[in-house]
Amino acid sequence: MQKQDTAKRLIVSLIVLALTGAAAVITRVAGLETTTAKLVGSFAAVFLLTGVVWRFPFRFYCMAFGFDVLAAVLGSALNLYHYLGFYDKFVHYTSGILLAEGGLLIIHTLAKRQKTPAEPLLCRLFSLFFSAACAGFWEIYEFTADSLLGINMQGDNTNTMGDIIAGTLGALTWFLLQTAIQRRRKNT
Length: 188
What we know:
188 residues, mainly alpha, 7 helices
């Protein structure tokens, strides 16, 4: 990895770390309802995410940190999940976009390892269905956590299905945008 690329990644991580710190201060000063665990988790997410996606393409790196800001900093630390009724669905929608991009990375990596050409439409379809499947798996995780730990991450069936639909709509949005971009490249 080149020094310039390393510097860009560090800058992104430091910006998100600073936003997390600002959120922690705002939470305390404004007296917003949140927990110390959510604040600590938001800081931990920055360090964990930096380590996990460090070698991923820069575009995905930025998307992952953008999602972290939405989910951990704004959603958990500032507790927008509590204060804005639509916010949970919005985060699930954006997770669909991020996971579709992750699916694209997976299918391209597999095609490269097999030394086979990656057919663009099949790659986009794989990414769409990968993301939709992840939305379902996330809800299974929430159900399991609720059952084992006696917490209430999931809410009710309507919330669960709404989350899956929001994630799938995010993936579908990604698919349609990528299809439009692909067509535009073909025509130029």
